[in-house]
Amino acid sequence: MYETSNDLPPTTRQSAIDVLNEHLADAIDLQLQAKQAHWNVKGPNFTGLHELFDRVAAQAGEYSDLIAERAVALGGVARGTLQAVSGQTQLREYPLEIGDWRAHVQAMRDALATFGRGVRKAIDDVTALSDADTADLFTEISRGVDKSLWMVEAHVQDVRGEEKHVGQPPSAREQSRP
Q: What's CA 5's distance to the chain center, in Å?
């Protein structure tokens, strides 16, 4: 660990650096998976999903940068090489042979949900270390991931609750509302 004037105790900094590097691997993997989906999605929703997956990739790149810079600011080394990421990521391997838009949405939904779950655990882990700044960083990332997950999931969420009213006159639709 590098010397720094940061007033967090060295053991706290080292533990936070370890947590940061664990999630740096996930953020970089998420970015690459979103690019894989962006490049290969097919189907009637191509344009919207192509653009959405590109935004998810860009956001994951921003998360990677925030996480890596915090690790270095604490005196650590950001471990963002392909080899480090490959050995440490918690995300499932992205299925390379898919093309159908639904399969890409499912794969991105799984990746975002896994990443979000890990980030929320990281908030708890660094809060237990009394590192409020790193917890705040992970909280910011958590909010962004939840929004991306919502936007991806919206493409496949069931809307049958609305469909059951199709064909009914407006008065019947209004009467069936609670």
A: 32
Q: 99 near 40, Cβ under 8 Å?
A: yes
Name, in order, each residue with C-beta under 8 angstroms of 170's C-beta and a sequence gap of 6 or more: none
The candidate with the shortest Cα–Cα distance to 13, out of 81, 85, 77, 84, is 77
125-160 b/e (C-beta count within 10 Å ≥ 16 → b): bbeebebeebbebbeebbebbeebbeebeebeeeee
Sorted by where each starts, the structural domains of the chain and their CATH numbers stand as 10-157 (1.20.1260.10)
Q: What is the tens place of the pLDDT at every residue in 25-81?
A: 999 999 999 999 999 999 988 999 999 999 999 999 999 999 999 999 999 999 999
Helix (H, G, I), strand (E, B) or coil at 100: strand
CB 25 within 8 A of CB 88: yes
Question: Rounded CA gap, 126 and 117, in Å?
Answer: 15
User: Looking at the DSSP assignment, which residues form a beta bridge with residue 100?
Assistant: 42
Which H helix or E strand runs over 144?
A: helix 132-153
- Predicted confidence (pLDDT) per residue in 77-102, tens digit: 999 999 999 999 999 999 999 978 99
Query: Token pair of 48, please?
Result: 């919207």
At residue 145, what is the residue type? V
Distance of alpha carbon 114 from the chain centroid: 7
- Six-digit token string for 168: 């009914």
